[in-house]
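Hi again,

Forgot to attach this to my earlier email, sorry! This is the prediction with magnesium ion bound. I've pasted everything inline since the attachment limit keeps bouncing my files.
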Amino acid sequence: MSKLKALLFDVDGTLADTERDGHRVAFNRAFAEAGLDWEWSEELYGKLLAVTGGKERIRYYLDNFNTAFERPEALDEFIAGLHASKTRHYVQMLSEGMIPLRPGVRRLIDEARAAGMRLAVATTTTPENVSALLENAMDPDAMSWFEVIAAGDIVPAKKPAPDIYTWAMEQMQLKPEECIAFEDSHNGIRSSRGAELTTIVSVNGYTADEEFDGAAIILDNWGEPEQPFTVIEGDAGGSSYLDLEMVKRLHGG
Ligand code: XBP
Ligand code: MG
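Structure tokens for the complex follow:
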């Protein structure tokens, strides 16, 4: 295995628990603002998460859960308009500090930066959402800590396709064996493993029962010294929270 040079982070569910109380609520606010009576419950949203990408998720909802809706002729524009409104609501919620980072994220990123590790983001979500999360929940300067922000429509095929990870590594001129990915979902690890990346998984409420074939380890949390993780599958080598030493050990380089 090559020496580890870069950490590649998914965003939603990985850096922060954004889906249930963030994205879902923002979608519902956008629907209400548009005068639609659609309401995505926590349970329904769990089903809709099968599809990544907000615009793609709205279309999936119409195709499978609201087939009676009379669609406007310009459906693409209609969905794009709803999604733009959803992004405004979501960014607003982040600016109000509604979504914190998951435990352990800030500590690991600080340690990685101090050690000269290169950092990048590889996500399906819209770029504005990434900057809003990093600046509000991590640090006002956090955008400058990440060399590459690979996000949203930058590649046409979203996760589970490997394209977003491959694109990020191309930008950084790094090979998969020089990087490690952090994910929280089945679609996420399909993408990272498809890009041949060693992948560390930490699940959340929506993804706890998903399959994570090929994960280096599956944790219930990134862990903190005072808040240890539980290992769902794999060998933590005696660690109780994820630090750079454990990341390097799992990478094997
Ligand atoms: C994230 C997603 C995104 C967000 C919504 O998946 O699926 O679609 O839920 O984002 P991952 P947008 O964590 O695997 O990247 O509405 O901005 O598309
Ligand atoms: Mg995710």
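The CA atoms of residues 134 and 140 lie 7 Å apart. The chain is about 40% helix and 10% strand.

That should be everything now.

G.
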